[in-house]
Structure formats: C-alpha cells, structure tokens
Amino acid sequence: MEQWRYVLTEPMSPAMNMAVDEAILVAHSEGKVPPTVRFYTWDPATLSIGYFQKAEKEINFDAVKANNLGFVRRATGGRAVLHDAELTYSVIVSEDHPKMPSSVTEAYKIISLGLLHGFQQLGLKAEMVWLASEEEKEKYSSPGSSACFDSPSWYELVVEGKKVAGSAQTRQKGVILQHGSILIDMDVDLLFSLLNFPSDRVRERMMESFRQKAVTINEVSGRHISLAEAIEAFHIGFATGLGVQLVTEPLTREETEMARELARTRYGTDEWNLRR
C-alpha cells in the first residue's frame, strides 16, 4: 500500500498555519516530501477568510479584536470560517498523482472521501450527495455574502441533511492543496457577530438560514466527541478513504524555516490579509 505522510502539528498562530500548508505544497512540488495529510488547530481561535473576500467590507474587525481572535486570509477560496472548537485538515498531493482525477470537482470528491470515512468512523450516518442542479446546490450554499461554508463542487458531505464540513481547494506549482474545517462544536452567534450585515434583521435571518444548513459533530452524535477522538477517527478515515497508509512524520527543517518566512512576509502582514 502506498505510504503518505501524516503530520499532526501543535496549535499554531493563524499566519503559521497557513504558511505551513504552503510550505508543504512547495516542498512536495520539488519532490522533497511525499503526499501529506495534516491535522491542525489554532492559537488563538481565528477567523479566516477566503482569498477573494473583501476583508474591510465584510468583516467586523472591532468584534474580532474584542473577542481576542486571530485573523488571516487563506490562499484558497471560500468564505469566512471560525476556527475554534474544530479540527482543520489539509491534503497536499500532486495534480498528476494516479489517485487524482484531472477535474477539480472529481479530485475534491476523492479527497473528501477521507472526510466521509472519518465521520462514519465516529458512528455518524454521513453521505456524499451529488448536487445535480443549481437548485439543489443552493440548498447547501452559504447564506449571505460572507458566512461559511464554501460550496466548491457539486458534491456535498451531509449528516441528517445538513453540511458537516467546509472545504476549499487551490492548485499551485502542479500541486493540489485542499483544506477545510471539521466542526466539533460551533458558536454561531459569535461567528455572525464577526461579519458585517446591512442590518440586525438581515443578520438574524442569515443566522437562522445557516443553522438550517450546517451542523456540528456534537449536535448530531448524541454524545461529546473530544478533539483527540476526532483526530483518531479522521486519521483512520483519510487512510481508508484515500486507500493509503499514513505514516506519522514531522515537518522537515526546510519546511519549518520556509513556513516561518512565509508567516513573516505574507500571512502575518496587513498587505496580504487586508489586500482586498
């Protein structure tokens, strides 16, 4: 069975978390590291936004500061995600890998099988739904202009008819980077307090729409799932879903040094985070 690298990093700053994902992508593009599955968390809890979002228009930075949250722009698309009571994953693999279809949508489906198997490992009746029409896609799309989750493909992971994960993908240097948020718990009120809306009435309507479309693991599991249990389940899930053996290895020294430089020069700067 093919071996991929599995990296579980300690809680990191928003800038470092995004920088590490890019550093792995660069190292993999140069043939220095194998395909990699990484799990990570955030310190402090962080609001991340998609590459194309208009930060100052869409985000309430006074609320971000008041709640002592971090902030970062991702290199991937999508909308605002609150990284708090959740597990973030990333998968980095060459576009020409035999397991990866050339289609972005189909590659998203293959990678997301890891998520599907992870949810099933936790005993949840998760399924991957093929959205065959714009009407069906709208059912799972993000409410409003800023709130998560992103809908990057015609496939959606659902439990009890609600979205259970938000993912986004980018391709650079011949490499696929897909990362996303696996919600264990979520403070919906906090998330929506961080986003700008035309009025409180619109905010309330969007929150209600969000609650009808998205769900967390602990809301549907009927019991408390710890971070450690989620990590174990999705470790098994990605190995099973991708049909590989995940071998635990640390980041290389070169990746760590590159990530620190990227955090300093890109992901930790206003030039990057407030660029739009």
Automatic annotation (TrEMBL):
InterPro entries: aa-tRNA-synth_II/BPL/LPL, BPL_LPL_catalytic, LipM, Octanoyltrans_LipM/LipL. Keywords: Acyltransferase, Ligase, Transferase. It catalyses: octanoyl-[ACP] + L-lysyl-[protein] = N(6)-octanoyl-L-lysyl-[protein] + holo-[ACP] + H(+). Its EC number is 2.3.1.181. Residues 31-246 form the BPL/LPL catalytic domain. It is an enzyme of class 2 (transferase). The record marks K163 as: Lowers pKa of active site Cys. SUPFAM superfamilies: Class II aaRS and biotin synthetases (SSF55681). The active site is at C148 (acyl-thioester intermediate). HAMAP family: LipM. This is Octanoyltransferase LipM. It comes from Brevibacillus fluminis. The gene is lipM.
